[in-house]
Amino acid sequence: MVHAAEIPESATPADTLLTPEQLRDGVTSSAFAYRGYNVTNLGRTPELMDIPAYRPILEKYLVRAANICSDVKGRKVDLISRIDAREETTLATYDEAVSMIVAVEVAHVEILREHFGVDISNAKVAYGFSLGEISALVASGVIELEDALRIPIAMSDDCVDLANDVTLGVLFSRRGELSDKKVSKLCQEINAEGKGVIGVSAWLAPNSCLVIAQRETLDKLQKRKSELSDERVYVRRNDNKWPPLHTPIVWQRAIPNRSQHLMHTMPTKFDSPTPPIFSMVTGAISYDGENIRDTIGDWVDHPQQLWKAVDYTLSEGIDLLVHIGPQPNIIPATFERLAANVASQTKGSVGMRALSGIANRPWLGALLPRRASLLRATKVTHLKVEDWLLENVPAT
Domains along the chain? Predict the structure, then answer.
């Protein structure tokens, strides 16, 4: 449900000008990637709402999402008016942001199917960062939109309250890998002091992760970061406020237990999703039709395994990555950074001579000989659906 946070020194891939026919033909070797919550969530949705062919589908899902948000929160929520007015969400309207993101992502999928014949069930895999995993489950048909949204909306006030005294940081090394065990141990030692909780929220790469820290715990991590690696380690702060999901901080309001309790009566289809969903909770394709509640329950406080999703994408020979949702950033940015690093390290060559000369990024150099699939990072085609839809408006 959280953090499409900026990655240090990152950029996003340029949109690819695929024709509708090329997109349909490429689906079988594609992955669909759904974005999560961010400080900005409108993206180009207002522009899509101005297209007569798209507006009815967007309105259908936005009305359904607004109705469930209104029902749970006991106040009138009008997502369509917000979008038409180009009124961005804030942390104070986190519940509306959650509702809008999932609604728009599911609408993107239906627009692709209805107007362009692109059926995501034919894709090789789907995954989502944070809230995006919930959207992927809805788009696959195993959970209805209303049922998927009810629980995160019910927990939204507590998530916002917890966000008020936390700081998001990026912990990274430009040269060496970070040990997840060492990072976890250091966070637990800081937590044991009883002056706030810090935890990893997402693993972005072998050398970087997102951490969310209460009060002064990020300062303590900053002071002790040299314990994590023989190489130099950095901590970069993010000034925005983020609900601290995917960390133990949510235990303070019993959010995992309360969510799991509500899941007992959450209707689902007892089928494996199509396409298969790679879970960033487990770091694998785990949904089998019987473990949806268990996996989503862990989703609340377990770190997001973004790097494992990247590795899976490249190792499975996926050629096309379709980015669903408004203004997707963290997933395309992660791939772009990796592609730039690979291109720099190999200087355009995949020969052993190039690999043997790696010096500036030893963490990548250590991986490349073992995981040659990472070299494919420069070859994956990226497509942002909201931009593509505006470039391919159906004739009226």
Answer: 20-159+252-391 (3.40.366.10), 165-240 (3.30.70.250)
